[in-house]
Specification:
By secondary structure, the protein is mainly beta. It has helices at 20-35, 61-65, 83-99, 147-153, 167-180, 226-230, 243-254, 416-421; strands at 7-11, 14-18, 47-54, 106-114, 119-127, 134-140, 187-195, 198-206, 212-219, 259-268, 275-284, 288-297, 301-313, 318-328, 335-346, 355-369, 372-389, 393-405, 428-440, 451-461, 471-485, 488-500, 552-565, 568-580, 602-611, 618-625, 630-631, 634-635, 639-645. The radius of gyration is 35 Å and the shape is globular.
């Protein structure tokens, strides 16, 4: 190729000509950049060997390290000096001292001593000064609310260090007390007087006059009727204008699910000082929604779900929704679960604060009972009335009717006696009344770290209600969460159930009884592996009995979840559970030792990993049985792993 000749390269729009001299220049520049040092050692920030504090006799080093950004290097992490952070760290140290009552504290110097090996020692030199103690707290001007009640609400206490940043918060707490009693114009200020033994903190209160609600206006509701918003208010025109009632009304308006933003704006009347008007500004949610989901589990394998709904029919808050869920295997891709349902919600049932819900559904599941695998079809409807009692308690009263279709060829797989014991000798009809009580004290709905969650359900089927299935059923659970580090949580969970016939001589159907085991119950066991064990064939006798679902259930969990890095976390657990034909068979010794006896508790332990994804959590784990489980006389494997992707069904 002669000098100056170009190289043609075919591109999407034709040919691009590149001069060889240009390529040579690029190669030379790249070689020079590769050979050049990334920067002289003198320009590289030194490694922080140690982080020290001088002059701090009242506050320990660990507390100061927690409030600054600068850190010393460790075995796993190399920390380099960032001089811009040092000034910010000095400010944070002073703030921390002020929060402890050292109002004169200052960082007099920040020293950086570098060594010849590229390391340094950072030292903050501190002058603490004297600590200011609150000698006495006084309250003046309070006539409506007594001083003792005010003192209980204050964060600052006599004999404790003075924290100036808390004073405005305590002033607001005093104001909130008066505003909750209707004194919306109340004003609170303070003054400090020094004494030899500390300072006297005095709160000055101008109570003002009690005010009353005048008019109410709603703005921003283009699709939602004004009545749907106004009727959620707990105060009416002429009532005392209490702050707590305004906040409760705001919460109730949010809970309708129709709005994404609700602002309560009180407006004082200039001409009438004891009257306030309330302006409610709202921003509406989209009325229609469409959702789709995908998941993976050890039982359903691939799970597909979809839903469509309208949350505000005719601007009245009435809701209607269509939902569908399908579970399939992968290899082969065989359907093993299907559910479709239509749901209608009436927000104010018969003009009361009860919520009415109507659900019509059809469900097909691939079941294993009586030694046979078969499809079980369930079609039904449920009418429910739901009521919220206080902020944390909900109750339901419902009636449901369900028709269950059992394949007629089951007798080809099991004897009529076995099918009769399982309640599967014919199709079933269940007519049931159920009461549910739920109390949610958790601090977070999806990732709780404190509090508890409990639920109790009591149902009665058959008898005067009709239907072929006649039984009583009680189920419940209790979860309790304790946070023992910033992001680590210890949880205790108990799940129990009991079912038995209340009248008649028919057996409770197997699909209404209990089985357990699997990634959402007793991990380390296969899905529904734990049943009431059968009897293996005796010597000389070829007959035996199969494992069956039980009438009594108990599952317990002790679990620790903790973060690892990024969005990845870990889990360590100890699970236990069993089912029995009757609770009368359960004794204390069954929980205290390891045995293969049928009535003894089944324990498992293991570890897991979880990671948050946009479509739900991905959970992977492995559990080990602390004893082999028995089923139809066979010893099962001693361990089991699982994968769950997306929310569990």
């Amino acid at each position: 190729m002669s000098q100056g000749q170009s190289i043609s390269v075919l591109s999407g729009s034709g040919r691009v000509r590149i001069d060889p001299r240009f390529l040579i220049a690029l190669l030379l520049i790249g070689a020079a950049l590769w050979a050049a040092p990334a920067g002289g050692d003198q320009d590289r920030p030194p490694t922080i060997r140690r982080l020290e504090f001088e002059g701090n006799s009242q506050v320990d080093d660990g507390s100061l390290r927690d409030v600054i950004r600068t850190e010393a290097s460790s075995f796993l992490h190399t920390r380099r000096l960032n001089r811009r952070h040092l000034d910010d760290d000095a400010v944070e140290i002073v703030k921390y001292y002020e929060s402890c009552g050292f109002l004169e504290a200052e960082v007099t110097a920040t020293q950086v001593e570098e060594d010849a090996e590229g390391g340094c020692v950072v030292t903050f030199v501190i002058r603490e000064g004297r600590q200011t103690i609150i000698a006495e707290i006084r309250v003046f001007g309070n006539l409506v609310i007594n001083t003792r009640r005010i003192a209980r609400e204050l964060d600052l206490k006599s004999g404790k260090p003075l924290r100036p940043s808390i004073i405005p918060q305590d002033e607001f707490r005093i104001y909130a007390l008066y505003a909750d009693e209707g004194f919306f114009r109340c004003e609170v200020s303070h003054m400090l007087i020094e004494r030899e033994d500390g300072v006297v903190l005095t709160y000055l209160i101008d109570e003002g006059e009690r005010v009353y609600l005048g008019g109410v206006s709603v703005r921003g509701n283009e699709q939602t009727r004004r009545l749907m918003i106004a009727r959620e208010l707990v105060l009416r025109s002429g009532d005392v204008f209490r702050r707590k009632d305004v906040l409760l009304s705001q919460q109730r308006i949010y809970e309708t699910g129709l709005l994404v933003d609700v602002e309560m704006e009180p407006r004082l009347r200039a001409s009438d000082r004891d009257t306030v008007d309330l302006v409610i500004r709202v921003r509406e949610e989209r009325n229609r929604w469409v959702g789709m989901g995908v998941g993976y589990g050890t039982r359903d394998l691939l799970r597909l779900s979809g839903e469509w709904g309208h949350r505000n029919l005719w601007g009245t808050g009435r809701q209607v929704g269509l939902e569908g869920v399908m579970g399939t295997g992968l290899f082969p891709a065989e359907l093993n679960k299907f559910r479709a349902q239509v749901r209608y919600l009436e927000p104010w049932l018969a003009g009361t604060r009860n919520t009415g819900i109507v659900t019509v559904y059809e469900q097909h599941t691939y079941e294993h009972y009586a030694g046979a695998d078969f499809w079980l079809r369930r079609t039904g409807a449920m009418l429910s009335a739901r009521r919220k009692v206080g902020e944390r308690i909900r109750t339901w009263l419902s009636y449901g009717y369900e028709s269950v279709e059992v394949p007629s060829d089951l007798v080809d797989f099991s004897s009529p006696e076995v099918l009769r014991d399982l309640g599967l000798e014919r199709d079933g009809e269940t007519s049931i009344v159920e009461f549910i009580f739920e109390r949610d004290m958790r601090d977070h709905f999806f990732e709780p770290s404190r509090g508890s969650m409990s639920r109790l359900s009591v149902g009665l089927a058959g008898g005067p209600l009709g239907g072929t299935n006649e039984f009583g059923k009680i189920t419940g659970f209790w979860n309790y969460y304790i946070q023992f580090s910033p992001r680590s949580v210890l949880s205790f969970k108990i799940n129990a159930g009991w079912v038995n016939r209340c009248w008649g001589d028919g057996e409770v159907p197997a699909y209404e009884r209990f089985r357990t085991g699997g990634p959402t119950s007793v991990r380390g066991y296969q899905e529904d592996e734990i049943e009431v064990p059968g009897r293996a064939p005796a010597p000389g006798d070829s007959t035996g009995t199969l494992a069956t679902p039980g009438s009594a259930l108990l599952v317990t969990k002790v679990e620790i979840t903790f973060p690892l890095f990024w969005k990845l976390g870990g889990t360590v657990f100890l699970d236990g559970g069993n089912v029995w034909s009757d609770f009368k068979q359960v004794k204390g010794k069954h929980f205290l030792s390891v045995s293969d006896e049928p009535n003894y508790y089944r324990y498992s332990t293991g570890v897991g990993l979880w990671i948050a994804t946009p479509v739900g959590p991905l959970q992977i784990g492995y559990g080990i049985k602390l004893r082999p489980g028995l089923r139809a006389g066979d010893i099962m494997s001693s361990a089991s792993g699982w994968v769950i992707f997306g929310q569990s069904l």
